[in-house]
Amino acid sequence: MAVFTPLSDAQVAAFLEKFDVGSFVSLQGVAGGTENSTFFVTTDRRELVLTLFEQGEHAELPFFVDLLDYLDEHRLPVPGTIHDREGIALHSLAGKPALLFPRLPGRHPEAPNATQCRVLGDTLGRLHVVSQRFQGHRPNPRDLNWLRAVHHKVLTYLSPEDQALMKDEVDDFESAFNQYGELPQGALHGDLFRDNTLYDGNQLGGIIDFYNGCTGDLLFDLAIVINDWASNEDGSLNAQRHDAILSAYQARRPLTAAERALWPTMLRMTALRYWLSRLLVVYVDPPAHDLTPHDPERFRTILKARILFGALPLPEAS
């Protein structure tokens, strides 16, 4: 979240008149983030979040609206979009696509405890069960096909050792996934890091920022969560967090035999996905705004740890 397109009080007050949300009181830009302009908006009735979309494929925004509304209807803790008096959610403001959301309670957990991890695992399991019936479709833009197609763009910036590491991993991924049929599919969050959740104590107030949302392997989503939520500083896995998430998740959606077999590979693949995407931002496609990119080294460390130590045993459903 950040502010790249400033808005005036008058602009926002006029925008809110389309909605049944009360009268404008105040506007506050939200710092941080890399992609969109985000504002906290207070009316005389409620607290809201206003997002302007600065980049990306605007034609894909209806998919995100439909996904958020679908999950909200199924009582998942997500910010379902606010529709205007005519039932329309997606609007234009200051020449940018704009969406209005309820502001969810809580803050990002920097060091999640076991209870917070169990709550996340349970919620993600519920989300994945529900998401298998979602009718929308958006192919995963960061899957194995993407890794295969773009990893060569960063090779010249890497040491010979890291070049070999990246190429060998992509080859290994292809070989492993070719041994199995299609894994369970559904709608994914696609970027469920700690800073895309809000907690009020141990209660999950909300899962936010679905703009990497897509449809694809549910296991891909779960591996992203484990690599962020359950990794120690040296990249190794924290058994307590790992087991808390996965036990609660499997109580909602037990993994299939194929998913269990591919789990160590998926952990490595999603680690490489973030190592590569961060390298691309640093060397190939820097952000449009004056922002500090995320450090690619974090996910190189995680990838090396997954190769060196493998995956922890998968717990059974709790």
From TrEMBL:
<keyword id="KW-0028">Amino-acid biosynthesis</keyword>
<dbReference type="InterPro" id="IPR002575">
    <property type="entry name" value="Aminoglycoside_PTrfase"/>
</dbReference>
<dbReference type="InterPro" id="IPR005280">
    <property type="entry name" value="Homoserine_kinase_II"/>
</dbReference>
<dbReference type="GO" id="GO:0009088">
    <property type="term" value="P:threonine biosynthetic process"/>
</dbReference>
<dbReference type="Pfam" id="PF01636">
    <property type="entry name" value="APH"/>
</dbReference>
<comment type="pathway">
    <text>Amino-acid biosynthesis; L-threonine biosynthesis; L-threonine from L-aspartate: step 4/5.</text>
</comment>
<feature type="domain" description="Aminoglycoside phosphotransferase">
    <location>
        <begin position="27"/>
        <end position="255"/>
    </location>
</feature>
<keyword id="KW-0791">Threonine biosynthesis</keyword>
<keyword id="KW-0067">ATP-binding</keyword>
<comment type="similarity">
    <text>Belongs to the pseudomonas-type ThrB family.</text>
</comment>
<protein>
    <recommendedName>
        <fullName>Homoserine kinase</fullName>
        <ecNumber>2.7.1.39</ecNumber>
    </recommendedName>
</protein>
<dbReference type="InterPro" id="IPR050249">
    <property type="entry name" value="Pseudomonas-type_ThrB"/>
</dbReference>
<keyword id="KW-0808">Transferase</keyword>
<keyword id="KW-0418">Kinase</keyword>
<dbReference type="GO" id="GO:0004413">
    <property type="term" value="F:homoserine kinase activity"/>
</dbReference>
<keyword id="KW-0547">Nucleotide-binding</keyword>
<dbReference type="GO" id="GO:0005524">
    <property type="term" value="F:ATP binding"/>
</dbReference>
<dbReference type="InterPro" id="IPR011009">
    <property type="entry name" value="Kinase-like_dom_sf"/>
</dbReference>
